[in-house]
């Protein structure tokens, strides 16, 4: 099989799961053409991301003239289909859609259709139900192979009408959700007849990269939070909760791994609460650096307001560390309270503070036991090669159905 992966910005530090998925497919013999719109503006610190960027055919590098030419060729070869797709693009997103933006997506789609035909791709797969899936939909309408796409959340579920999410599912050969929660959200917007084509394929980890976990450290409680510094991650709640918790346990320490638009606000809150000795901001780290931070911590804390099914939860559990998480989206499908971690309501500062104080008193032996249970659960459910096998099977079925 030859599959074209249509992506927005790729690779990115926070999206190593896409790279793992592509590489797992390639280990199975699937030929993957990488067609991201643009490279990341963030500095790539992980060697895997750096190497992956060299494998990409960046669509926007082709330029407006090639886009326009590609669309003109589509119209000349099949005028009815070309103009029908033009009006489809203008209707996407409803009455308040940004028409110019969809016109740009149409031009990009014409170029993608041209490249996928030239490269003899049999199927297009997009990650996220946002602009990449729009380009895939329009490319298919212009004569490219059929498409599928993976939704992660929460962004797609925040704006289903603007993104024409239901229409994307209905027109796709199949759609993928990364959790049962995600499938339930796609089912809200898709027609009933499309429900059978909504598949669950988990994001995965590479078990070989997570050898037998390092021993849980002794000493004062050390927590690590990993991810973009954006509102949905709930990091400001974490800082406020930590300020309450250190009144009872002064030596709790939290490492914040990542970066983003809220960094200045977080730094100000840390300073205002006098937490400079309790919090370390590391910036983005390589995958090896993230594993080191997890090994040096007693547990992961993820106080999110909204999620899909976080990769960092999988990585922490594979590293033999329990998780302090919130009851949002797909997280409860993986974190089992009092077995692989603990759960609190999202946005509840006092509940999170109380939990940190309680976890600080948990004996090392109990943390080790919970970490081992967490590791067993995630390796059973999120092995990337097993998940890639599922996805490859869906690709094969869709291609075969399209050829009949």
Task: Give a brief rundown of this model.
The protein has 404 residues and is an alpha/beta fold. Helices cover 46% and strands 15% of the residues. It folds into two domains: 2-204 and 383-403, Rossmann fold (3-Layer(aba) Sandwich); 207-381, 3-Layer(aba) Sandwich (Rossmann fold).
Structural description of this entry:
- The protein is of the alpha/beta class and 404 residues long.
- The protein folds into two domains: 224 residues, 3-Layer(aba) Sandwich (Rossmann fold), CATH 3.40.50; 175 residues, 3-Layer(aba) Sandwich (Rossmann fold), CATH 3.40.50.
- 46% of the residues lie in helices and 15% in strands.
- The strands form two sheets. It has a six-stranded parallel beta sheet with strand order 2-1-3-4-5-6, sandwiched between helices. Strands 9-8-7-10-11-12 form a six-stranded parallel beta sheet, with helices on both faces.
- It is elongated.
- The two termini are 16 Å apart.
Q: Could you name the CATH homologous superfamily of the largest domain?
A: Glycogen Phosphorylase B
Q: Compute the number of strand runs.
A: 12
Radius of gyration: 22 Å
Strand line-up of the largest beta sheet: 2-1-3-4-5-6
Which architecture of the largest domain per CATH?
Answer: 3-Layer(aba) Sandwich
CATH fold name of the largest domain = Rossmann fold
User: In the CATH hierarchy, what is the class of the largest domain?
Assistant: Alpha Beta
- Counting helices, strands and paired strands, the structural category is alpha/beta
Report the portion of residues in β strands: 5-15%
């Amino acid at each position: 099989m030859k599959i074209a992966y249509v992506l927005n910005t790729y690779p990115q530090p926070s999206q190593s799961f896409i790279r793992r998925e592509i590489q797992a497919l390639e280990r199975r013999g699937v030929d993957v053409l990488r067609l991201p719109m643009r490279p990341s503006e963030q500095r790539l610190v992980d060697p895997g991301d750096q190497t992956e960027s060299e494998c990409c055919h960046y669509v926007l590098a082709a330029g407006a003239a090639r886009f326009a030419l590609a669309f003109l060729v589509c119209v000349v070869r099949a005028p009815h289909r070309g103009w029908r797709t033009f009006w489809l693009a203008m209707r996407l997103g409803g009455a308040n859609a940004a028409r110019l933006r969809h016109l740009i997506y149409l031009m990009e789609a014409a170029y993608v259709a041209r490249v996928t035909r030239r490269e003899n791709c049999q199927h297009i797969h997009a990650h996220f139900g946002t602009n990449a899936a729009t380009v895939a939909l329009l490319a298919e309408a212009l004569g490219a192979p059929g498409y599928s796409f993976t939704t992660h959340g929460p962004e797609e579920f925040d704006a289903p009408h603007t993104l024409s999410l239901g229409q994307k599912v209905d027109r796709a050969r199949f759609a993928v959700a990364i959790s049962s929660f995600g499938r339930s959200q796609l089912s809200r917007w898709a027609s009933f007849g499309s429900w059978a084509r909504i598949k669950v394929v988990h994001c995965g980890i590479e078990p070989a990269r997570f050898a037998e976990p390092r021993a849980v450290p002794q000493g004062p409680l050390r927590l690590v939070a990993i991810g973009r510094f954006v509102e949905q991650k709930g990091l400001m709640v974490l800082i406020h909760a930590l300020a309450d918790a250190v009144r009872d346990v002064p030596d709790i320490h939290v490492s914040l791994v990542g970066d983003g638009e809220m960094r200045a606000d977080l730094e100000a809150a840390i300073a205002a609460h006098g937490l400079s000795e309790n919090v370390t901001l590391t910036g983005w780290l390589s995958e090896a650096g993230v594993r080191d931070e997890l090994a040096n911590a007693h547990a992961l804390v993820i106080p999110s307001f909204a999620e899909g099914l976080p990769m960092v939860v999988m990585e922490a559990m594979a590293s033999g560390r329990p998780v302090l998480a919130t009851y949002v989206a797909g997280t409860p499908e993986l974190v089992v309270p009092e077995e692989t971690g603990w759960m609190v309501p999202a946005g509840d500062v006092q509940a999170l503070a109380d939990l940190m104080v309680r976890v600080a008193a948990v004996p090392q032996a109990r943390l080790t036991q919970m970490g081992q249970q967490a590791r067993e659960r995630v390796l059973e459910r999120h092995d990337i090669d097993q998940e890639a096998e599922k996805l490859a099977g869906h690709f094969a079925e869709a291609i075969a159905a399209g050829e009949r």
